[in-house]
Amino acid sequence: MLATGEDRYAAMLEDQADTITAHFPDYDNSPFVQEKFFGDWSKDQHYGQQQNRAIVGHNLKIAWNLMRINSLRPKAEYVAFAEKIAAAMPSVGADPQRGGWYDMVERVVAPGERFHRLVWHDRKAWWQQEQGILAYLLLHGVFGRPEYARMVSMRIIQASLALACRVTTIPITYSPDRSVTLTAAPLNPRSTRGSEPGSGSS
């Protein structure tokens, strides 16, 4: 669309956004979107490794894509869905102590548990951090809300320190004046080894 200016590409993007907005929200059952479907749009929660699980970065990616399409073909439902994702993800998809977005989690909290259980490991893939930065950066650019700017700055600082110090996570300390202290510890290369399927760990 940007390269050609042809309206047919904008129409295709709008159709995709309409489809996602119509079928992916599942907030009566989970704070995460429903990603897999059968041909009649009924839920497929037994597909491959996805099962009834959420990929945190996919939720964040939906938010920033909807905001970009909204700039081209504005619709209130795009904004509402993107803001719903932005409000929900920090409490269910991020590490509240060390920062960063998780990879795959169970979409539904198991009976007797308090959190969405991690699938396979607690590591945080670089691309999910990218999706979070993009999502809140675009939301802040459109709405100028300080909470979105804060999410962007925190994630950029965490990602930069993690790369510089070769750590997987950056612990965060919040002070009463809302200032933030970040500390980094060297990465232990054995700390997360054996946490994936087939690793032989118990």
In short:
This protein is mainly alpha-helical and 202 residues long.
Strand order of the largest sheet: 1-2
The total strand number stands at 4
CATH class: Mainly Alpha
| β-strand amount | 5-15%
CATH architecture: Alpha/alpha barrel
Poorly predicted segments: 172-202
The main pleated sheet reads as: 2 strands, antiparallel
* Secondary-structure element order, N to C: HEHHEHHEE
Shape designation:
globular
CATH topology: Glycosyltransferase
> How far apart lie the N and C ends?
50 Å
Radius of gyration: 18 Å
* Total separate domains: 1
**In DSSP terms, counting alpha (H) and pi (I) runs of 4 or more, how many helices?**
5
Give the proportion of residues in helices.
Answer: 40-55%
SS content category: mainly alpha
Task: Give an overview of the whole structure.
- The chain has 202 residues and is mainly alpha-helical.
- The protein has a single domain (7-182), classed as Glycosyltransferase (Alpha/alpha barrel), CATH 1.50.10.10.
- The chain is built from five helices and four strands.
- It has helices spanning 7-23, 56-72, 76-93, 126-143, 146-165; strands at 53-55, 104-106, 172-174, 180-182.
- The chain has a two-stranded antiparallel sheet.
- β3 (172-174) and β4 form a beta hairpin.
- α1 (7-23) crosses α2, α2 (56-72) runs antiparallel to α3 and α2 runs parallel beside α4 (126-143).
- The chain is globular and about 50 Å long.
- The relative contact order is 0.12.
